[in-house]
Amino acid sequence: MARPTPDTLLGVRDGFLRYFKEALERQVSVAVVPQPCEESPLGLAVSDDEVIRRTRKKVLALEEALGSTYHFYVATDGGLNAVEIDGKLRYFVRNWTVVRSRLGEAWGTSGAIQLPDRIVRELDSDQVPFAVPGTRKSGGMISSLTGGLETRRHAVALSTLHALSTLFYGMFDGRSR
Predict the structure, then answer these.
(1) If DSSP codes are grouped into helix, strand and coil, which group holds residue 36?
(2) How far, in Å, CA of 131 to CA of 148, rounded?
(3) What is the pLDDT of residues 100-146, one digit of tens each?
(4) Which of 57, 48, 149 lies closest to 108 in space, CA to CA?
(5) Element of type H or E holding 14
(6) Which of 63, 114, 130, 143 could form a disulfide linkage to 139, CB 3.0–4.6 angstroms apart?
(7) Is 6-167 CATH 3.90.950.10?
(8) In Å, how far from its chain's centre is CA 64?
(9) Is the Cβ–Cβ distance between 30 and 16 less than 8 Å?
(10) How is the chain split into domains, by residue range?
(11) What's the pTM?
(12) What is the residue-averaged pLDDT of the chain?
């Protein structure tokens, strides 16, 4: 069983704090309680569909195991998405978050960063998921690709904020425009 990284936990917390501070215009207390979850297979998922399925599976397992213990269940993971442009595959890295609560389920994503061609030029599609630079200790793939200008924590916070925005759409004054 895997445990979330500190960057992941802080990112989830940051996403909740930002959303509720701006939506409610006041500070709220947020406790993020890490839970062990099934380890993802080696290598990155190679489509948004696959990342969402993996992440959704994790959040459903949390909810099933913990019942109504918490108000929200959150799972987040990074992956690749391949887009064909002018007959050539371009690979983009991004983070996805799935949030479940009594209100339902919503998904959010961070911004996407293109893998430089020089990293994937000589690789076939089976090798690309293992070619992304960065390690958990070094801040992950997003930090590596941006030279530290963007971090896993920021990506997780943004994808969490986006999922919460969908989940609560139209529930707070002025937010349904």
Answers:
(1) coil
(2) 18
(3) 999 999 999 999 999 898 888 888 777 887 777 765 566 678 888 88
(4) 48
(5) helix 6-24
(6) 143
(7) yes
(8) 20
(9) yes
(10) 6-167
(11) 0.89
(12) 87
Tokens of 126: 């089976």
Whole-angstrom CA distances from 165 to 18, 97, 107, 162, 171 are: 11, 12, 9, 5, 10
Question: What secondary structure letter does DSSP report for 39?
Answer: P
First to last CA, the chain: 42
pLDDT at 41: 67
Query: What is the distance, to the nearest Å, from the Cα of residue 90 to the centroid of all Cα atoms in its chain?
Result: 20
Whether the CB-CB separation of 156 and 11 falls below 8 Å is answered with yes
84-100: per-residue pLDDT in tens? 999 998 989 999 999 99
